[in-house]
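tool=predict chain=A
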Amino acid sequence: MNANHDGDRVEAALGRLRELGERITPARQAVLRVIDTADRAEEHLSAEHIGERVATLEPSVHRATVYRTLTALTGAGVLTHVHLGGTGTVYHLATPASEAAPGVSPAAYGTDVSEPHGHGHTHVQCVVCGRVQDAPPGVLDEAARIMRDDLGFELDTSHAALLGRCADCVPT
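tool=predict ok
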């Protein structure tokens, strides 16, 4: 992640919410701070883990409020989520499309190709140990091109993890 933008990501998300006329609540601020910290540490947090961390920042925020906040922030385009096999859904702060890698389709950065935000990488998950890793968005460019050219299908690799085996679990 670009270190110059790390401190600004929560403020950018709050600014996006203000532009949309959304309220800025302590719960929303806490959720954004928790997810930003996790993103910078390359962690993949589920709603449950986000709720646990929010409880330490804002003890008055109820777990149900965290779940509703995740849904609202995803709908507003300031968060993205990825479905992982067997472990649920994880969340990331969205990255403005202006920070996306050159030549990468907007579909690779968000849940909706019309959205100007996304998280900017593909997830891979080991089916043996469950480890989740981030792959650069360009890794699937050729597959996306073939699917677009041959099938007219716009591939969105940001919404689900690709499954396989990590280096530690591949039989030798």
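The first helix runs from residue 3 to 6. Confidence is low (pLDDT under 50) at residues 1-6, 98-119.
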